[in-house]
Design brief:
The protein is of the alpha+beta class. It has 4 helices and 3 strands.
């Protein structure tokens, strides 16, 4: 019985030492990135991207500024990457940094959300 008790104490000691010496894990850490979205034209574009991205795994907050043509995204670094987020924006039909818009998604955008050279955009006031 003494041997079993000693073995248990030894195992518990080892477990404690190993659990205390391991490096801390950054679970749930947030990162924020600003992505250039040069083809965003209007409030509808803003709403479309924000709505779509908030459904992406790991994305916590999205703010699109269509006047500055930027998209600020706060996300969990252990659940997604900035490249995944850019791809998601491209899948909605907009250019995102160095990722070009998906042509099929771009075709489905309303006229006002398309590039001016494609007959889209709003008239300057």
């Amino acid at each position: 019985m003494k041997k079993i008790l000693c073995l248990n104490v030894l195992l518990l000691s080892c477990f404690y030492v190993f659990s205390q010496s391991s490096a801390p894990v950054r679970k749930g850490a947030f990162e924020t990135a600003t992505i250039s979205v040069p083809t965003v034209q209007c409030e509808q574009c803003k709403d479309r991207i924000e709505k779509y991205l908030t459904r992406e795994d790991g994305v916590q907050k999205v703010t699109v500024d269509f006047k500055k043509k930027t998209c600020k995204v706060t996300y969990l670094w252990d659940r997604t990457t900035i490249e995944n987020i850019k791809t998601a924006i491209a899948n909605v039909g907009y250019d995102a940094g160095d990722v070009a818009a998906d042509p099929e998604a771009y075709k489905k955008l309303p006229t006002c959300c398309k590039k001016p050279e494609d007959g889209g955009g709003h008239e300057k006031q």
